């Protein structure tokens, strides 16, 4: 990376990059790692982990050029953080690491950084569903949460009605966001990760839709909605009997 970023003999593209332009690639590579794991492709996982590591090296190199920190600092920082977050392993406190203890340690870290709000530190670049769930979880730690799933269920019904009543496009966007946020709250109350659940639903839909296309051939778009629904049900029955 140092050679690629060399001002005299480096690559024009690599030299033109900065933290903000590389960030989208970093996020993309993290998702490709997750995709390889989901597919169970260990050879691909090896390659994707290399791609993700390159992103870390790229950011560290740019920081080193700016006199901020280098790769060694990055590695040392995460090592120190893991030791601090596992006092029962690296310290003398003993005990086990439950969720409450872990969150308390992270909360102490945020306080040391001068963060005041319970919502400080929830990354803006997270996928929207994941960020919604993290925001809700942080708020719940202060007591701002429904006592049971019924509250968020009623909120979903309320938001559906408000979306149906919305007139302008701006209002529809706002109410649609409120509806999705309420849905995340509802599944969170059931102990479900909204991001994981939707990813699984996406995979299931894609698998079933492709099976429908294969069953019907090129004429699928010409089928009536009822005929397409019949195919969908046939695919579902096939999955259950497999």
TrEMBL record:
EC number: 3.6.1.19
Protein name as annotated: Nucleoside triphosphate hydrolase
Domain of life: Bacteria
GO BP, one annotated term: TTP catabolic process
Phylogenetic classification of the source organism: Bacteria, Pseudomonadati, Pseudomonadota, Alphaproteobacteria, Sphingomonadales
Keyword Hydrolase: yes
NCBIfam families named in the record: mazG (TIGR00444), PRK09562.1 (NF007113)
Keywords noted in UniProt: Hydrolase
EC class of the enzyme, as a word: hydrolase
Family annotation (CDD domains): NTP-PPase_MazG_Cterm (cd11529), NTP-PPase_MazG_Nterm (cd11528)
């Amino acid at each position: 990376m140092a050679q690629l970023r060399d001002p005299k003999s480096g690559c024009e593209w690599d030299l033109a990059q900065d933290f903000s332009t590389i960030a989208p690639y970093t996020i993309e590579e993290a998702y490709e790692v997750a995709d390889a794991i989901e597919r169970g492709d260990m050879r691909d996982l090896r390659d994707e982990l290399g791609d993700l590591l390159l992103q870390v090296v790229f950011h560290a190199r740019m920081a080193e050029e700016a006199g901020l920190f280098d790769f060694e600092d990055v590695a040392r920082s995460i090592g120190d953080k893991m030791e601090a977050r596992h006092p029962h392993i690296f310290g003398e406190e003993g005990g086990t690491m439950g969720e409450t203890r872990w969150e308390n340690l992270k909360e102490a870290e945020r306080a040391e950084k001068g963060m005041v709000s319970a919502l400080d530190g929830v990354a803006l670049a997270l996928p929207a569903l994941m960020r919604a769930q993290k925001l809700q979880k942080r708020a719940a730690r202060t007591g701002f949460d429904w006592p049971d799933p019924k509250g968020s269920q009623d909120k979903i019904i309320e938001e559906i009605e408000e979306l149906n009543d919305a007139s302008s496009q701006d209002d529809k966007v706002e109410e649609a966001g409120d509806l999705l946020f309420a849905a995340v709250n509802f599944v969170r109350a059931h102990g479900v990760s909204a991001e994981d659940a939707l990813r699984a639903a996406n995979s299931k839909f894609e698998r079933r839709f492709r099976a429908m296309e294969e069953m019907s051939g090129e004429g699928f778009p010409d089928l009536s909605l009822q005929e397409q629904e019949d195919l969908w049900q046939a695919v579902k029955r096939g999955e259950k009997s497999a």
